[in-house]
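Two proteins, back to back. First:
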Amino acid sequence: MTASHNLPDSLKDDGTSTAEYQEGVVYRKNIGNYVVCVDGHFVACEMSSRLRKRLIYPTASPHSLRPVVRQVKAIEHTDPIAIGDHVRILRTSDGSGLIVQIMPRRNWLSRPTATPMPGAHAFEQLIAANVDQIVAVFAAARPTPKWGLLDRYLVSAESAGIPALICLTKLDLTQNASPKDYAELMSVIEEYRQIGYPLILTSSISGQGVDELKAALKGRTSVLIGKSGVGKTSLLNTVQPGLGMRIGEVNRATGKGRHTTAHLEMFPLSIGGALIDTPGMREFGLWGIGNDDLALYFPEMRAYIGQCKFGLDCQHDEEPGCAIRNAVLTGRIAPRRYQSYLALKINA
């Protein structure tokens, strides 16, 4: 739709009227190039250089005609635009567009960039914005699930205020598992269910859980996260024929397993809603979460925060009278989740 809102003064000094600006949603981005959906039409766009800068103004005098920029600071993102962003664009004579404003987000998911050496400064890498849920995809086997990685995904979702759904794939492979391995897998699954996370067990071979997953995706904007090889392509082809193939082509173009994603894309679902897939991630760090806040993002620990002998100063490690440690010892918090919490504190 054609925008009727007023633009900030920093974006109106070219004499362009606000009626020439349009609003849309970012469906694809690839190293400074974007595709924005405007009224059902896809527009190739570039980003205004001003979006990489934050303009800092002094307190305006009531007699001044317009504010004067006092300072310009670079925004600490690898790319300030995320898939799912609602943006305002200026159409150009050749039919393309220039993204001039990012509208306020209701949520966003991000992680730190890789650093070339210890002590180097990491930047925020935006993954997706304005999503309804995060779907963490793990295989029951081949590869062996890394529950610590799942906990990092869930902590990120909790800190962003985004509901999380756990999807376990390749359930058919558990038929050959030993009774001990199968029991351990089911025990961990039950831990997450007891915490309150919805969990869907699926198999693209037998079709188990596919209808349940379709119902969970229908009408929602979902972002999929998971390592390469967990069976996302096969599963998505079962959900919507050809969907996994399209996503697979995108992921192969960027290089599976690379830490920095060059190409992200949102795909509409025929059942309603949309899906944002992220190429397989070998690493997933936490952004903007300090040790003091970490326990808040473990839902089973929240009720015990502030109940320790040392109150909010407790580090929940070796202090006497720690309510969280006591909950672990009495079976109210799973020991594995507590160990995951301690490992995240060390790496935070």
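And the second protein:
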Amino acid sequence: MPLVLSLLLVACGSLIPSGHQKVEVSQWKGGDYILDPDHASLIFSINHLGFSNYIGRFNDLDASLEFDPEKPEQAHLFATVMIDSLDVNNPPFSQELKGSNWFNAKEFPSAYFESTEIRIIDEKQATMTGNLTLKGTTKPVVFEVSFNGGADNLLTGKYTLGFAARGTIKRSDFGISFLVPAIGDEVELQISAEFLKI
């Protein structure tokens, strides 16, 4: 069975041309989009005692996107992150991070982000400002966004847009100041996402 599966994956891969996406945002299809949760990730990185950057992720994400290629600066994004999906590849520590000293997932089960301003830099990148609500506090956050491309996805049969984004927040701004400064205050966020046209 593994051999058959491998052959099928190789066959599918040969059907997908490299570089078939339209990278230029003006060539994308407008409309309403939803996040493909199977092809989305939110990774965070934080300094640990000056020795290393500690990496974690959230596994349960949802988002919607409204997009017009003629007015990309008016695009609107709304995203939800389920705090209980936090994953640092260490189950006991993941549970500790969900506790009251850190994210307090019981009282604040979700984080939200809603875009408020998009500034197009060129056909392949933009800055997106929005309001992040985390642990009951709302603050503005800026992300540097890269446009990976838009195209019909030959595996799903759906038109897909791909993005990557990076931003930095101060966790103390959101009431998560436990062990600052030994554990870094600044948290780098790295996002990769595919959106499916409805």
